[in-house]
């Protein structure tokens, strides 16, 4: 949460402390091993798993004995993208322009977590593709990019099938640009009846934040609840 400002970081640290959760910073998890079952009391380990860590400062390896490991890292790019002839950012996400198209191929769209959105001005700059920094991997961006991709794919499909309205080539059809919001409200459920909010530099921890999160989440999920959607549209003949 360090990118959400000092107040949010302080609130997260406070919550972790009250829940007696130890945070080890500057350590990279590199592998997990099952401890061998042995009857030898000298060899026998107290825990089932060993997590291997790398200290990112010293480069030294460390071992941490564990009962269980919950691996909760950030979003990763699918490996098969590396075999495609598309510009990718440093982490392997597909670079897209404001119309959510790959700059290498106008027929390829990418949106949501798999994409690295780059503004048209940045795309025209001299920065190497690997240096591009996309948007945070958060649902708020994916959800709003979806309708733009849908609209743009339809416009291209129409132009390819029926010809562009003004006789242009399909690749020159004017597409809808995606304009990302500059920030978003983050609400983190701390599973004790409270949640942490993060909005610009402001942050709160309270029960009302959890109730707000619950209201927003339920309202969003209700959009996909078949019982609330009404009858499906009749398919065209
Ligand atoms: C635990 C967790 C909690 C989160 N909470 C929040 C939150 O509270 N608020 C928020 O804004 N964001 C949250 N996020 C982030 C949010 O879920 C993602 O940013 C969002 O789901 C991205 O949407 P997407 O459609 O790009 O990708 P996804 O939702 O990951 O959808 C990708 C789909 O593509 C499918 N797929 C993958 N590879 C292939 C393939 N080769 N062929 C066919 N299909 C394939 C996958 O099965 C999946 O169904 C959370 C993420 C996680 C993991």
Provide tags for this entry.
binds flavin-adenine dinucleotide; three-stranded antiparallel sheet; 237 residues; alpha+beta
Compact description:
The chain is of the alpha+beta class. Helix content is 26%, strand content 20%.
Q: Specify Rg, calculated over alpha carbons.
A: 24 Å
* Secondary structure tally: strands: 10
Which H/E pattern describes the elements?
A: HEEEEEEEHHEEEHH
**Distinct small molecules bound, one entry per kind:** flavin-adenine dinucleotide
Average of the residue pLDDT scores: 89
Low-confidence stretches: none
- Report the helical percentage: 25-40%
- Order of strands in the sheet with the most strands? 1-2-3
Alpha plus pi helix count: 5
Q: What's the end-to-end separation, in Å?
A: 51 Å
How many discrete structural domains? 3
Characterize the biggest β-sheet.
3 strands, antiparallel
